[in-house]
């Protein structure tokens, strides 16, 4: 797989859609997300990572919120071209008419060439079934 050289908000959103579509065929208007930041022991955070941790991905900002597709893509790509180095995607079973996905995300924001999960074709996302 070739190295990723750019990560626009649109590319990030496209990759998110590819990842969730691998789990389930979705109606983009009936998809919601729960973002769960993951602390990684022994992985140092730089100043931008700390800003994301303390402000954007803080418990006060996203703790119990359920976000739309557009809100999620905008929030996680707000420091583009820097985005989380990895994001694990899984479906949360529920009885609602919406498809609810959990995004466990690294707090480390990195440039496109350093993103993980490139072998999947939609970095930084990894589908967890």
List the helices and strands and how they pair.
Layout: H1 9-23, E1 31-38, H2 47-56, H3 59-62, E2 67-68, H4 69-76, E3 83-84, E4 87-92, E5 99-106, E6 109-110, E7 125-127
Parallel strand pairs: 1-5, 4-7
Antiparallel strand pairs: 1-2, 3-6, 4-5
Helix pairs in contact: 1-4
Q: Key terms for this structure?
A:
129 residues; 24% strand; alpha/beta; 29% helix
The secondary-structure element order is HEHHEHEEEEE
β-strand amount: 15-25%
Radius of gyration: 14 Å
What's the tally of helices?
4
Record field, number of beta strands: 7
User: What count of domains describes the coordinates?
Assistant: 1
Shape: globular
Stretches where pLDDT is under 50 for at least 5 consecutive residues are none
Task: Name the average pLDDT.
Answer: 94
Descriptive report:
The protein is of the alpha/beta class and 129 residues long. It has one domain (9-127). The protein is 29% helix and 24% strand. The strands form two sheets. A five-stranded mixed beta sheet has the order 2-1-5-4-7. Strand 4 (87-92) and strand 5 form a beta hairpin. It is globular and about 40 Å long. The model has no long low-confidence stretch (mean pLDDT 94).
Summarize the structure.
The protein is α/β, with parallel strands linked by helices and 129 residues long. Helix content is 29%, strand content 24%.
């Amino acid at each position: 797989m070739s190295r990723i050289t750019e990560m626009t908000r649109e590319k990030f959103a496209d990759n998110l859609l590819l990842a969730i579509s691998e789990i389930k065929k979705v109606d983009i208007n009936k998809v919601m997300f729960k973002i769960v930041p993951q602390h990684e022991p022994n992985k140092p955070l730089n100043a931008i990572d700390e800003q994301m941790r303390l402000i954007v991905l803080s418990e006060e900002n996203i703790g119990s919120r359920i976000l739309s597709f557009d809100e999620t893509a905008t929030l996680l790509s707000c420091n583009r071209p820097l985005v989380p180095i990895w994001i694990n995607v899984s479906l949360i079973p529920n009885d609602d008419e919406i498809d609810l996905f959990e995004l466990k995300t690294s707090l480390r924001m990195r440039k496109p060439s350093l993103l993980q999960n490139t072998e999947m074709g939609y970095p930084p996302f990894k589908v967890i079934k």
